[in-house]
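Per reviewer request, we include the raw input and output of the structure prediction for the construct analysed in the revised manuscript.
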Amino acid sequence: MIDHISVGVADLDCAARFYEATLAPLGLSRLVTRPATIGFGRNYPEFWINLRAGMTPVAPESGAHICLRARTTGDVDAFHAAALATGGRSDGAPGLRPHERVRYYAAFVIDPDGNRIEAVTFLAE
């Protein structure tokens, strides 16, 4: 249903370093580089960062977050660790989340601009 998503960033170089490391465990790499935007993906750019030079940090109460699928719990763990190592903050350590219908393993991070990003995998019963 969704073809691609994008987030605004105040410093494109800083955000590129963050997202190159953080998205790599999920199988996404830098595919497109332009003066004010960078696209990451597997086969085509699915996730974009766009320079917004005058951008202020995203307000914590904005309510927006983006969830990306991981193959394994190890990928979720690596996503979280890479985010913290490159200037992100934890918004929920990797772990099993309570849910009625599925076994949901996820980690939540906040990028240097305040964007909320989640990685998730679903475990077999």
